[in-house]
Amino acid sequence: MKLAEYDISHPFTATVMKSERITNSNTAEVRHIDLSVRNESFHFIEGQSVAVLAPGSEAFGNERHVRLYSIASSREGEGSKPDEISLCVRRCFYIDPVSGERYPGLASNYLCDLKPGDTIEMAGPYGRHFMPPRDSSHNLLMIGIGTGIAPFRAFMKHIYEDRKEWTGKVRLFYGARTGMDLLYQNEQNQDLANYYDQDTFKAFEAVSPRPHFDEPVDFDRTFVDNVEEAWSMIKDPNTHVYISGISTLEEALDRAFAKAASSAEAWETLKAKIIEDGRWSTLLYD
Asked: Are residues 114 and 27 in the same domain?
């Protein structure tokens, strides 16, 4: 579904309650933003997204700029406040391929510059395909990069704080450029560390082998190092796979799982079966 196809005809107002940087000053800025939603008809579940309606660019004649962001809170609301949600936002910049000039991303810079008390327009929520299974005995294999961690934070809050009786395996393979970029798992914010003592939870971290050269996150190596763990889950018919982050992530996973399956053909056959069973969900962006 293309962004232009999302219905934003019923926007509502949200107020910024808190905005805190969750990466240190030596790396890219990522902020955790809490928003109070004043809309009685707004209800969401884990894995859904909202549209932020940021001021547009006069240069392009757009009154507003629309960008989707995953909700990083469980359905109980951020901090168990039903009318509050949180977003995980990376301040982005883009290079014009023709001029080579560097431009700020409209929505991300708009959000990162907001202060408590500021109000914004939003719409949604959208998407019901990326949600945790109802059966608490089923397994979750969550794989993400960067701000793709947002829906997984929501998943784990729902599983371990709201439902509490989860017995299936919960595994998180998460990648970032450096250890400082491992969101909710660094010195600035350790939300996910709260779940490390859960018997059913285990996390595996992947970083770039040479971050200063902008080399991609080495997910292939992380899967090789933990192939038995990942592959045993993939083959289990009770495992649900969730992939969140940049679009190239799925390609890296296909390579890794093809090696584990001994051939690309064998992996494609198994993957097709997982998709057919409704146990393969992606939330990818360019």
From this structure: yes
Any idea what DSSP says for residue 152? H
Is residue 267 classed as helix, strand or coil in its secondary structure? helix
Judgement on whether residues 203 and 178 belong to the same structural domain of the protein: yes
Query: 3-state class of 279 per DSSP?
Result: coil
- pLDDT given at position 98: 76
Q: What is the DSSP string of 169-221?
A: -EEEEEEESSGGG-TTSSSS--GGGGGTT-TTEEEEEEE-SSGGGTPPP-HHH
Residues 96 and 229 in one domain: no
Cis peptide, bond prior to residue 211, ω within 30 of zero: no
The model's pTM: 0.89
Backbone angles phi, psi at 255, to 5 degrees: -65, -45
pLDDT the model gives residue 207: 65
Tell me what the mean pLDDT of segment 163-169 comes to. 88
Which two structure tokens, joined as six digits, stand for 164?
Answer: 């509490």
| Chosen domain end from 126, 150, 174 | 126
SS3 67: strand
Q: Alpha-carbon distance 220 to 206, whole Å? A: 9
